Amino acid sequence: MVSSAGDQEREFRDFVAARSTALLRTAYLLAGDWGAAEDLLQVALTKTYLAWRRLDGIEAVEPYARRVLVNTATSWWRRRWHGERPTEVLPERPIPDGLDARLERDALWAHVKELPARQRAVLVLRFYEDLSEVDTAALLGVSVGTVKSQCSRALAALRKRLGEQGIEPALVADGSAERVKGAVR
Amino acid sequence: MTTLEDELRAAFATRVAEVPAVHDVAGAAIERGRAVRRRQRRTAGAAFAVVIALVVGGTTLAKVGRPDGRPDQRGSNVAAGPTSPAPVEVPKLDLVVGNELRPAGRAPIALPGKGDVYDAVRVPAGWLVVRGDKGTRTLWEVRADGAATPLIDSLPATYVFSAGGRVLTYQKGSSLTVAGIVAGTVPTKTTIQLPGKDGSQGRTGAELVGRAGQYVVIGNRQGIDYDGFDVWDPANGSYVPTWNHEVVGVYAATPDGRSLIGAVKGARDGITCAAVLDPAAGLRARSKVCDQPYFAAARHGLSPDGRRILGQSAGAVAIAETATGKQVAKIAATEGVWPAEPVWVDDQTFAVATEGGIRYVDAADPARTREVPGPSTSEHWLAVALVAG
């Protein structure tokens, strides 16, 4: 990208206009609330702007911004400073019969938010961004084995916590969001 | 076939189906980026100026040095110049890097336990280290010879050290406990019940906020914010809340220990006043300094001598004096964000992690700083804090 400062700003604005909503969605899933997500996005975009001249082509920009986003979100220091208040005991939620899928997804989301940030990031990259294990590892700067183990631990924790609430993702053939209720692993 | 993985995909998609509008993020990023570049240029310029001053000054010193050959101290001061203050001395700072404690100038000590190290403070007996994961954190006492004793197996996330690390206050559910830490044990405990309850959206009601001198600071949490504050003196035993709804924060005790400093609501929304508060009169404001930006005290923000407190204010690390609560200086982050809370290294100097290293700042003259690379780019690390006595 060889261009003047004005061109670079225009390119940057075009990039933000095209991709900021997608990045904000990922930021939200990483951060857990929209305020923190905007903060994350700002940091990622500022660093992207600063790195614009050395990023080799527009196709390198989004991966860079996404990497900054994820690495900032998983920075333990940052979570502390911004006052993350982890819940010691997961909240008890009575699950009435006939609870709709939305409420159960809310429960799943609540448990996802309680996962350690790096496990949460792996889940978001694998199951929201649909990145492969290899691409997830490259983005996080860890080994594929680490991605596998983090993902496995995260899924196991979610199954356990959902099971404790009497919710279990059903192995049903029709692909709907039905659950087998009351089955505790 | 629906699996947990499918459910995650559906849950993620549901959560981000609607995205709130954000205001000109590109413009904001460009502004912040420009500010960073300006600071970088200033820093580079200052570094160049120092090099020039040293070269020129060195020549000058050789010419005007004392007859005995020693450099002329006035010459040195002139070389340093008021526009390029002498960088602060790098004091001794203990660090935790990955699985080990690295005391300044001493051999590393392997830390006990597993998981992230969330907190580490220096105490007379050695160090107190909080390690584990979100659900199970253990408080360890680590001594200089490497011996480690688990003090509390399930330390909640809401806790605070005070009195030089000799007192631990923590909240578990609605129970608030104040315990002494003596020679690897936690022998004395006072526990009270706080009004309120834990729900799926977090706690509603009384919540431990921190310590201010002899008092435990309690906030009335309602949603994401506090609606009023109160203090409790553990020496008085039982606790009945008497919220002061004008108070928006209580940070520390004044140096004489008789009053507290904090913030109260100002005349307009969004404006707060730093205030000296009377703990014996329901946190009534004795004096105020208004038009102060909101200040969030850092966990270990109180200086060892009790004269200053560090916090976050409008994206900067702010220094407030504990005599009045007034913010007296701010230090902006180079990258526009501070990745960590600051910790005191001695009465005068604090350290704060930057994106790339550690910045030391002279609290009395915040222009005097020095940045050094961090101890690791691959492992989690944190600076060990001092707890005000």
UniProtKB/TrEMBL annotation, chain A:
Q: Give the domain of life.
A: Bacteria
Q: Which residues form the RNA polymerase sigma-70 region domain?
A: 21-81
**Where does the RNA polymerase sigma factor 70 region 4 type domain start and stop, copy by copy?**
107-158
The keyword DNA-binding is assigned to this record: yes
Q: Which UniProt keywords apply?
A: DNA-binding, Sigma factor, Transcription, Transcription regulation
Which InterPro entries does the record match to this protein? RNA_pol_sigma-70-like, RNA_pol_sigma-70_dom, RNA_pol_sigma-E_actinobac, RNA_pol_sigma70_r2, RNA_pol_sigma70_r4_t2, RNA_pol_sigma_r2, RNA_pol_sigma_r3/r4-like, WH-like_DNA-bd_sf
Which Gene Ontology BP annotations are present? Answer: DNA-templated transcription initiation
Q: What's a single GO MF annotation on this record? A: sigma factor activity
Name the family: Belongs to the sigma-70 factor family. ECF subfamily.
Q: What is this protein called?
A: RNA polymerase sigma factor
Which species is listed as the source? Answer: Planosporangium flavigriseum
Automatic annotation (TrEMBL), chain B:
Outline the segment boundaries, as ranges, of region: Disordered. 63-86
Task: Please state what the protein is called.
Answer: Uncharacterized protein
> Which spans are transmembrane here?
44-62
Organism of origin: Planosporangium flavigriseum
Which InterPro entries does the record associate with it? Quino_amine_DH_bsu
Q: Which UniProt keywords apply?
A: Membrane, Transmembrane, Transmembrane helix
